[in-house]
Amino acid sequence: MLVSLKENWLKVSLILIVLGLVIMVASYWASGDNTQLFEYHGVHDWFRTFYL
Amino acid sequence: MNAQLKKGLLEFCVLATLRTEDSYGYQIIKDTSNVIGISDSTLYPILKRLEKQQQIESYSVEHNGRLRKYFHLTPVGQEAIAQFLAEWPEVMQVYDYIKGVI
Amino acid sequence: MNKIQFIKALATELAQAQVRDTANTLDYYEELIDDRLEDGESELTIIASLESPRQIAARLSDERPIIRQRKTAPMTLALIIMVVVLGSPLWGSLLLTAILLIAVGYFLIWLVPALAAIFAISGIVGGGVSFFLAIIAGVRQGWLIGSMQFGLSIAMLGVGLLCAGLAWYSGCYLVKWSVSLTRWLLSKFKARDKEVA
């Protein structure tokens, strides 16, 4: 898989970017243009990443 | 002959010797010696210089189991002879001046 | 002296006098002696009539002297002068500035692939980690947020991969370019042989 990745890195990377953007736009749109939902309120403690 | 004067003339003498036919070292010395004194050792530097100036070119021919170097007059060399001959009137002028005619 | 002795002596004298093109000279004299022998002269007469090998070599070295002068490369000379005057703080700081400028030059050149590499690593690592944590975020805070993060992490992966490719290719190209640049700079400091005549 790494070999095909090495040959097509440009295409794969661009597809991933587009795909990611599409999903982001889709979820934003699905939330009803609600930016409030995606904002983070509170202290940005890094260990909160693993707060399960 | 005066050494400096001879030095100037020798090159052209050698060129002229090659005008009729190609020749090799010893033969050139023999032929040119009829007109102007030239020794074995004086010829060699002249040949080197003429070849460097592309007025002659050399090639090797087999003779009695050894290689003999022949020299051939190039068009550049012929031009040099022609130029020498064309300049001769200027030389005569100097001669007349030294003589006291002018 | 016979012919072989004469030629040998001539070879020695020519080498000592640093005459160029000794092979041609030896050929000429050997040919001359052979021709005269054919003509009937005796070896001794011929050798006697010729100049001595030393005289021949002297004449030829007069004709075309090879003066090889080792010329100091201009950059090395300039550098030496700079170092000598280094005692004075004024000139010392000038030299330091020059070195720093060259270092900055190299740094700037390598900035592009370095930055691309940093973006690549952060994009891939960050994207990868948040890809998996998106699931957790989705569970904890709702699938919309989760999918937003999911999309973001995919985009980050894409950017990281893109930067990785950029870093790789610009790095390869720059390696070749800076190697040749360094060689060019160093060549300015190499002393060069200059043939004066």
Automatic annotation (TrEMBL), chain A:
The keyword Transmembrane helix applies. Keywords: Membrane, Transmembrane, Transmembrane helix. It comes from the Bacteria. The chain crosses the membrane at residues 12-30. This is Uncharacterized protein. It comes from Latilactobacillus fuchuensis.
UniProtKB/TrEMBL annotation, chain B:
Residues 14-82 form the Transcription regulator PadR N-terminal domain. Gene3D superfamilies: Winged helix-like DNA-binding domain superfamily/Winged helix DNA-binding domain. It holds the Pfam family PadR. InterPro entries: Metal_resp_DNA-bind_regulator, Tscrpt_reg_PadR_N, WH-like_DNA-bd_sf, WH_DNA-bd_sf. This is Transcription regulator PadR N-terminal domain-containing protein.
Automatic annotation (TrEMBL), chain C:
This is Integral membrane protein. It comes from Latilactobacillus fuchuensis. The keyword Membrane applies. Keywords: Membrane, Transmembrane, Transmembrane helix. It holds the Pfam family HAAS. The chain crosses the membrane at residues 77-109, 115-138, 150-169.
